[in-house]
Amino acid sequence: MEYACITDPGKVRTHNEDSVIALQNDNGEYLLAVADGMGGHKCGEVASKIAVDNLSKRFKEKKTVGNKEEAIKFIKDTVSEINVLIYEYTKKNPESLGMGTTLVVGLKTKDFLLFGNIGDSSGYVYKNKKIHKMTVDHTLVGLMVKSGDLSEEKAKEHPSKHVLMRALGAATTVEMDIFNIETEVDGILLCSDGLTNMLTDEQIEKVLDERSDCDSKLEKLVNKCNNRGGNDNISIAFLTKEAK
Q1: How does strand 2-8 pair with strand 234-240?
Q2: Which of 16, 99, 129, 192 has the smallest CB count inside 10 Å?
Q3: Is the four-CA dihedral 123, 173, 139, 161 of positive or negative sign?
């Protein structure tokens, strides 16, 4: 397996509110995560860093995430802890009131693959040279699409597409969606919307299919986003079966 992660402020934002990790433990288990912070005045980057740092710490503390049920519990318990940490930070630092973060997590072992998601950062599987979105966005527009009040095409241009209905740190408790994914995939791609708002699925797939290492592919994706304006922070974590 080969894996890498990257984060970039883009061309418009003055600072980067995203955080990202890609890790492997001694048991051959992999953890990927992308957090897209919000709140302004650098508070967003505080929230995303709390999320990613604590997730990384908890993963490194465990020799193994265990079986699927234990792994789901690990993700949910850790996310609950993170949520409380962010919420308490805002209580102690009034200037940070309203800060929070999205979080998308990928956890792969030899036996199973799990995605977890809060907010609108995305988890994809890469298979047969195509990416397939596995997570569901917790946005106002996402709810409208789910209820049939809005089409997928109109959702892409809707003025409220960035309004989050769920995020870490927004309340004392939070529910993370867990997705049990088939393991027969060629790769895992997690990203903030700074990637998907700038590039189409086809443009992303073309880069992932190139004969180069993970780091080079992610750098190329970031460069493509920035060449198209780089309107937002760009964060990507990628795991693939084998290098090309």
Answers
A1: antiparallel
A2: 129
A3: negative
pLDDT digits over 129-179, tens only?
A: 999 999 988 888 777 877 888 777 777 777 777 778 889 998 889 999 999
3-state secondary structure (DSSP) of residue 116 = strand
SS3 breakdown of the chain: % helix, strand, coil, rounded to 5? 35, 25, 40
Q: Calculate what percentage of the chain has a pLDDT beyond 70.
A: 98
Nearest CA to 121 out of 38, 65, 206, 56 is that of 38
Topology (CATH) of 2-136+167-240: Phosphatase 2c; domain 1 (3.60.40)
The predicted model scores a pTM of 0.93
**Alpha-carbon gap, residue 69 to 78, rounded angstroms:** 14
Give whole-number Cα distances, 86 to 89, 99, 131, in Å: 5, 8, 32
Q: Among 78, 105, 101, 100, which Cα is nearest to 22's?
A: 105
Q: Alpha helix locations (H) across the chain?
A: 43-61, 68-92, 140-146, 152-156, 193-196, 201-208, 214-227
Q: Which residues of 111-134 are buried (b: 16+ CB within 10 A; e: fewer)?
A: ebbbbbbbbbbbbbbbeeeebeeb
CA dihedral 154, 160, 161, 162 (to 10 degrees): 170
Residue closest to 30 by CA, chosen among 123, 116, 106, 112: 106
Dump pLDDT digits (tens) for 176-224.
999 999 999 999 999 999 999 999 999 999 999 999 999 999 999 999 9
